[in-house]
Amino acid sequence: MEGKDKKKKEVIRLERESVIPILKPRLIMNLANLIEHSTDRAEFLKLCKRVEYTIRAWYLLQFEDLMQLYSLFDPVQGAKKLAQQNLSPEEIDILEQNFLTYLFQVMDKSNFKVTTDEEIDVALSGQYLLNLPISVDESKLDKKLLKRYFAEHPKENLPDFADKYIIFRRGIGIDKTTDYFFMEKLDMIIARIWAFLLRLTRLDKLLAKRSRGRHKKDPKKNDEINSEANQDDLCVERIRLENMELSVQNMMSKNTIQEPTFDRIIVVYRRASPKSTERGVFVKHFKNIPMADLEIVLPEKKNPGLTPMDWLKFLVSAVVGLVAVFSSIEMPKADLWVNFAILSTVVGYIAKTYFTFQQNMAAYQNLITQSMYDKQLDSGRGTLLHLCDDVIQQEVKEVIISFFILMEQGKATLEDLDLRCEDLIREEFGESCNFDVDDAVQKLEKLGIVARDTIGRYYCVGLKRANEIIGSTTEELVLKARQGIKDS
């Protein structure tokens, strides 16, 4: 949309992410280039490798347990492996709950968050490319697995559907689409005329009274109320056709709509099955999903049909057309051309509603295909391996940045260190995140290269001493051995 258009701004306010959106090689090299002396730079690069190798080793056993457990609940081969184990149903229940416990821990370490009802309401409060009502066929989903897990591991702000499937999200992006949107603009005009008629007949107040008792808080209004209390939150503007100014130029030209996206989404669920041996747990990984089109990642979707509003349009059009025709026939001089015009208008409007639905269905099928081929990153074991690597990369980045700040800027309290790390990321890399300093400092203390003084400030040892404390890792010894073989 053109900047001069008078349109209502719709800003979505979201909590800043904890994930550090910087590639690790770039992070390490940029930090190394900030070090003045070449000898210190070499020691720093060696320390970064040793930190990564050590953290990877710490998580190795936990990740192996996760992968072994998932092999029993893999939707493809899990049933055969479970049968080979000859386990009782009670033992299988324990194992699947252990798997979910490991999975949620990895999700948390990867900075994935469970979507709440409020976030879902914000996401679905508008339309983007998907213009059909999509719902889940709950009869095809298991309701015991996740319900049992959350009964043993209570969490706040769980969505209403948490007993059937769970949606994890991480990262915020922006998606833009430019097109003429002729049918969407026509629908927008009809919707505005319909709203005007409701206001004219005062039916809008009657409908508002009926829905007031069950109406939830408007998430957008709630965002505006909380805007002052969350100054550090991430604000992303949503640009929709519904907020566009009506003009001939806007109707006939291309327009750009904009929608915030969830950078990564992981959906976890189990299909309902009468067979007790069917214990497969589905883990699907998507990227760059527009918030308003979040329905495309839902499991076991029903085929969409005409909406109640579409049926109402059909009914009202038919009634209005018949009344107009009969009224014309009862007149002393019935004009056939007037009747033909009325019928043509009614039939044309009904046909338009039907063909709009067909166009939306085609767009829906295209989005589903795109989500399967372009937006679905992986599923099952591949997703879990990706998550495990994510954990390591995030932990390494947090530890390296924290150590670098203490090394370059000296002693700091936990709060000061947190602010300094966020400032460094913002100034050197142009990125913003909610830095997890607590976890990073705990790991630095565990490595033995950071300690606290008598008044509680953190400080680090020298680079050379830090490398001596960690010592040569197994990977370094293997590389030296391999190099020795090549040299000989």
Description:
A hairpin with a 5-residue loop joins strand 8 and strand 9. The strands form three sheets. The protein has a five-stranded antiparallel beta sheet. A two-stranded antiparallel ribbon has the order 1-4. The relative contact order is 0.15. The chain folds into three domains: 117 residues, Orthogonal Bundle (Arc Repressor Mutant, subunit A), CATH 1.10.10; 202 residues, no CATH class; 50 residues. The protein starts with 9 loop residues before the first strand and ends with a helix. It has 488 residues and is of the alpha+beta class. The protein is globular, with a radius of gyration of 29 Å. Helices cover 56% and strands 12% of the residues. The N terminus is likely disordered. It contains 17 helices and nine strands. Keywords: Membrane, Transmembrane, Transmembrane helix. It holds the Pfam family DUF3754. This is Disease resistance protein. InterPro entries: DUF3754 (IPR022227).
* Multimeric state: single chain
The total of helices stands at 17
Shape: globular
Helix and strand run:
EHHHHEHHEHHHEHEEHHEHHHEEHH
Structure classification: alpha+beta
- Portion in strands: 5-15%
Number of strands: 9
Low-confidence stretches: 1-7, 211-231
The largest sheet is:
5 strands, antiparallel
Spatial separation of the terminal alpha carbons: 68 Å
Number of domains: 3
Biggest sheet, strands in spatial order?
A: 2-3-5-6-7
The overall pLDDT, averaged over residues, is 81
> Mind telling me the C-alpha Rg?
29 Å
What percentage of residues falls in helices of 4 or more residues?
A: 55-70%
Protein name: Disease resistance protein
Keywords: Membrane, Transmembrane, Transmembrane helix
InterPro entries: DUF3754
